[in-house]
Amino acid sequence: MMEDAELDLSPAHSDQNSPSPSISSSPSLSLPSTPSSSCGPPQATTPPLGVINEGVAELSLVIDAEVAQRACQEVLQKVKLRQVDSDSTLSQSEEGPDAPPSDPEGPAPGSVKSARRRQRHNPSKQSWLLRLFESKLFDVSMAISYLHNSKEPGVQAYIGNRLFSFPHEEVDFYLPQLLNMYIHMDEDVGDAIKPYVVHRCRQSISFSLQCAWLLGAYSSDMHISTQRHSRGTKLRKLILSDELKPAGPRVRRDPLALTPFCPAAPPTVSPGPLGGDHSLSPTKRTHQRSKSDATVSISLSSNLKRTASNPKVETSQDEDCSSSSDSLEFDSRPPVRLAPQREFIKSLMGIGKRLATLPTKEQKTQRLISELSLLNHKLPARVWLPTSAFDHHVVRVPHTQAVVLNSKDKAPYLIYVEVLECENFETSSVPIRIPENRIRSTRSVENLPDCGMTPEQRAGSFSVVPNYDNDDEAWSVDDIGELQVELPETHTNSCDNISQFSVDSITSLESKEPVFIAAGDIRRRLSEQLAQAPTTFKRDPEDPSAVALKEPWEEKVRRIREGSPYGHLPTWRLLSVIVKCGDDLRQELLAFQVLRQLQSIWEQERVPLWIKPYKILVLSADSGMIEPVVNAVSLHQVKKQSQLSLLDYFLQEHGAPTTEAFLTAQRNFVQSCAGYSLICYLLQVKDRHNGNILLDAEGHIIHIDFGFILSSSPRNLGFETSAFKLTAEFVDVMGGPDGDMFNYYKMLMLQGLIAARKHMERVLQIVEIMQQGSQLPCFHGSSTMRALKERFHMSLTEEQLQLLIDQLVDGSMRSLTTKLYDGFQYLTNGIM
Amino acid sequence: MSQVEKKAGLLRRTSSSKKPLKEKVVLMYDEIFAKEDPAKNNPRFWDELFLMKVNLEYLESKLESVDGEDVQRIQDNINSLFHHCVQALGEEHQIKVVNALQTLCALFRGVHQKNKSASGFDIINMLMGFDKAEQRMKDLMERLDSLLCGDSSESLKSLCLKLLLCLVTVTDNISQNTILEYVMINSIFEAILQILSDASSRGQHGYDAVVLLALLVNYRKYESVNPYIVKLSIVDDEPTLDGMGMVVHQALTEYNRQYKDKEEENQGGFFSTLTSMVGSMFIADADEKLSVQTNEAILLALYEAVHLNRNFITVLAQSHPEIDIAATPTTTTPTTPTTPLGTTPPSLDMMSNPELPLDPNLQTSNLLITFLKYASIVMQDTKDEHRLNSARLCLIILTCIAEDQYADAFLHDDNMNFRVSLHRMPMRHRKKAVDKNIPSRPLVCAVLDLMVEFIVTHMMKDFPMDLYLRCVQIIHKLLCYQKKCRIRLHYTWRELWSALINLLKFLLSNETTLLAKHNIFHLALLVVNLFNMFITYGDTFLPTSNSYDELYYEIVRMHQVFDNLYCMVLRVSTNTGQWKEAASKVTHALVNVRAIINHFNPKIESYAAVNHISQLSEEQVLEVVRSNYDTLTLKLQDGLDQFERYSEQPKEAAFFKELVREREGGLF
Fold it and tell me: Which of A11, A180, A435, B239 is the most exposed place for a label (fewest CB within 10 A)?
């Protein structure tokens, strides 16, 4: 595609250089099918575009043909809109001849009438459209909406350009929509979107990969024959071929050059790093490495390959393999820029596939741990977790912490990942590998050169070197040190009420006077400590994740940090991710987007509903990653492990009903229940058994698994007919159906629905665009959108809405089907 | 050396059949052993020699038959032969290289055979000549290094390693092999590592490389600085260390498998003996031997790696998912179509069928698990010296592991659960535990199980005191770690307590016989101090409050053992004698145990009297214990949670010297 464009453009380019005002407003040229031919001429006529003209010319000299082309077209469009704008104020009849260029069907003779009609209609629309586009209110959401709804290539092209002016993260939210439109909608939309995507791909590795993954995933529903030649597949190939590397600094200026178009736009963030950094970092890195390497002092002969130092994830069969020289080129040579991350993801998926072949959870867990420990050998590397919010490099996977999650036939698993935060993962140097067992022996590493021998010494008689065995003792001392000397320290530090005794044992060494202790005290301390320890779940080989998830996140971070060789670094962070292999996460992604949107709507409208959208990374149509909700276990696990009712569990975890802690937890519970009740209703979330509802340490519930939403329900049994899940246990936690909190719950729902209704379009748009070309079960049937829209009840008054909420709540409470469904799940899946 | 010998064997046959007309090569050998310079008449003599197939037997016998006076006479020629061998190693012609390697092997062996009593210097002089020795050996080592590291054929590499092994093991005592001094100077360590780091070369030569390394590390370990020790201690390249671990893992797995096969053979009925008869026709004799002999060389390598290299510890826990499938047994029993249906033991089938990777009992294994299983086999029978040494080495390795923080961390890691089926000695009074019932637990449980198993199975007349001491110390080290890190291991401590109490009982009842040979008070002190650990620090590492009550229950229940022990040590400590001091230490250590017994016994008796019960149930005793803690005062003892760290020198030096000497004799 790139080549085509470039070929197309070369004449246009020359056109630009030789301005020809005479044909500037020739409408016949702007045929949508051949946009490139139309882009050149008009720009010279309008004086304010002079600046851009320069920019454009410059751009076209540098390879980025598409951007230039778009810019041209935008210019054209702008001219037209301007004219229309000014003309319309004079008289409407005069605009007739001017309008056709924007009509895509213009040349088709059969549709003249309709074109006319539209022309008549268009002018006024366009005039305030432009005002809207240039107003401060025009945000990404609107841009996407117009891009989707407008049939005017001009408008589409304008918006395509306008995308450059929005902050990256705002556009990123709509990336699935953008790409889905690119894949499944007509050429114009695609052409409007492509320059932006290509531009961003050049800038960022992570954006490139995101695009490639999403393009792959959303192309998969097409028929295999069309898929191969589709735009989406081509763009994906282009991205993965890694040709979209950052070009010279001039290209990187193009978003800046375009900003004058958009007065309302905030200064574009262009994180383009300085080229100089690239070349510097690798040399620095190797230098550090060699310095830190103890082996150097002993001058291991060079024929021993140090594969461990290879930061790449590829195994030796991959094209550029091993040897540290590669790692040098790693940063500076673009072709492998995407490779490490792709390999990293590939190995994670490979593990998932292999796990699925093992029959028992226990074997899966063991296998997972061993596979991950091998993966560790290839870390640190220039790889990162796409679900994270900050730039980082993955340095280690604490393999023993990984758990296999509950699933019948697939093997999703949860891993924790140690990362080092960095400025920019593309340019910052990859951290140096620290061997696994260096946690405690940092001292010995530094000492090594002293007690080892220099090459000179070695060359001479080796009797100069001190006897080795003694050295060994010397290094090992820190272990004894930890066992003996550190004792008082650690104890006083940790929890002194428990361990006065141990301190005593030290002091007694000095005083030499017999110290007496009461046996009762020891016994009491034992039971106190056991009681004091936060309630943990019992280890169950059939449910290995329960224990891991129950452990408070802070606790886990601290524990893993202590055990990690990288833990001492100030930029150390712990992340976690669920790797799903064999699952389609596109619906999850859709749900995430809707949840995020509703969350921001509620925030904007100041309704205290609480929901927790968790990040989804779609890697393909059947794999992906999920950001786990920390400090949360499923209701199923809560009930199975505690054998308590939900209310009793709340009392156990948070305290008596009148305590501050309990009340806070209860409020959290109510606010989250209200949020998720609405979501379940609006999105028709089904399969709501207790394994899919989490409870976090603060009392919030969090719904997970949006595998059945909108038009799909499990086995299409129509089992769960209630609007959402509201069991008697839930109501008990809220203080019963007559309590204040329960009323608060209903009130929150009402407020939430009113707020959502107000911004319904923002929600609908997300879903609607994704329906395009999709075979997802949630879009099954023809009434998905209509039904969704109806659930916002635009026509009802607020009083009527209140009635509706009451009905929904009553219906859900009385719903037998919820109970039935739980029983059904218990029978079939063993979920309580 | 089997390969070389096989070749020699082949040659033997041909040479004997053609005795009357001597082989050309033999004639050439004769020329070397004549006074004249063989190249004098035939300038291409050496070139031709290495094109001939080597006749090892003849060459060696010729070297052995050289008389004392002749030595001087032919030394020049032998030096020349050696020199040309080394040069031939650089030839492109593979045949020449092979022949040169074999000739060198014969030279080393022949010269040493002849001059067993001679000093190392004489041997060097005879082989290479003093003045040139340094250069010759340097060349030899460099050539070998480049052959091993280069892309020469696998059989050539294998031959290089055999030559090195031959050189290393040519003397009875490795440390007296002066030639090795040159191997120290011209290190081939890197070549060995390279072999281990690469998967394919590791598969073919890994075993030899690891054994060679273990032996080289033991050369003059205590007298001088051995560069191999220094180098091995700082290797941090994970693939290499992993490779080393994998070689050890495979060797131990193979041993375990053969043992299990054998065991099943013995237990099987008529059919299995039949199949084994049929099977044994196909099994090479060498394999049979292996299954009896413990794998001491590999064990020594494991020890050196664990002891010297801190990075190796991580390899212990490294599991290799692929290895389990790769290491499927090769000696499948041939099933003939006439076998009666259903008589094949299912376990045998499962073992030998490589198509069953999905067997739910198949576990991802790691080196540590394999090692523990191996240790459980070796420790079963410590009667003969070999096995005793192997068991001792196993315990030493475990000691090193128990002292290592990182190892302790993964031993206790709650997320790394494994089912480890240890081999248990068949004993009359207990049934063989069914493997499948073993729960999946942290690895430390398996270590503790192994220790408990050892304690209860070795209380015999020929008391392995040394092993018991190590065993109890390992437990102590693990407890210290648990106390320090406050790890509450869900382990059935009761089994350990009763094993320890039984051990004390055994010491008491065999006091006189044991005292003649051992300081039983030291062991008793360690055991009592283990109890003291539980009594005074139980709050930091016991899993439940009940377990503390149970500890008291166990002590009170077995109070007679402690009473008798106290009487005994009191008696010995009040008499003057060599054990006075040792015994008095035990009396002091017993103070808390006695306090507990003296405190609770009357309470229990009065409880029984008040409630008119003659025999209290466990629950009732526990109730008494629980309600009477507060009136009991214990004395705090110093240093319970401190231990002496393992150090090879000077304590274990003698053992390792002996071990290496034995290995040299026994292995090759």
Answer: A11
Give the residue on A whose Cα is nearest the Cα of B416: A400
The residues, any chain, with a CB within 8 Å of residue A35's CB and separated by 6 or more, are A69, A73, A153, A157, A191
Q: How many Cα atoms sit within 13 Å of A186 on the Cβ side?
A: 13
- Give the distance from residue A69's alpha carbon to the nearest chain B alpha carbon, in angstroms: 53
Name the nearest CA neighbour of A57 among A68, A44, A46, A45.
A68
**Number of A–B residue contacts, CB under 8 Å:** 220
Residue that wins the pLDDT comparison between B590 and B668: B590
B 271-330 → A contacts, CB under 8 A: 308, 310-311, 313-314, 317-321
Whole-model pTM: value is 0.69
Lowest mean pLDDT: which of A313-327, A505-519, A577-591, B160-174?
A313-327
Enter the ipTM.
0.75
CB neighbour list of residue A763: distance below 8 Å, 6 or more residues apart:
A594, A597, A598, A601, A682, A756
Distance CA A403, CA A544 (A): 6
- Residue B2's pLDDT band (boundaries 50, 70, 90)? very low
DSSP result, B596-656: HHHHHHHHHHHHHHHHT-SS--HHHHHHHHHHTGGG-EEEPPTTTT--PPP--TTTTHHHH
| Spatial CA neighbour of B634 closest among A517, A512, A504 | A517
Residue among A308, A468, A522 minimizing CB distance to B233 = A468
Q: What CA–CA distance (Å, rounded) separates A716 from A720?
A: 10
Cα A9 to Cα A64, A154, A164, B392, B557: the distances in Å are 10, 19, 21, 82, 97
Asked if B630's CB is within 8 angstroms of A371's CB, the reply is: no
Q: Is the pLDDT of residue A81 over 60?
A: no
Q: Which residues of B touch A363 (CB under 8 A)?
A: 360, 362-364
Residue of A nearest to B546 (CA): A527
Distance from CA of A543 to the nearest CA of B (A): 12
Residue A694 DSSP SS3: strand
| Distance (Å, whole) CA A576 – CA A583 | 19
- The reply to whether A436 touches chain B by the CB within 8 Å rule is yes
Residue A427, C-beta contacts closer than 8 angstroms, at least 6 positions apart: A273, A277, A278, A281, A331
Q: Per residue in B633-665, pLDDT tens?
A: 888 888 888 888 888 887 888 888 888 876 554
A564 touches B at CB < 8 Å: no
Closest CA to B160 of B116, B94, B77: B94
CA dist B13 and B57 (Å) reads: 11
pLDDT digits (tens, 9 = 90+) for A312-362: 333 333 333 333 333 333 334 444 678 888 888 888 888 888 888 888 887
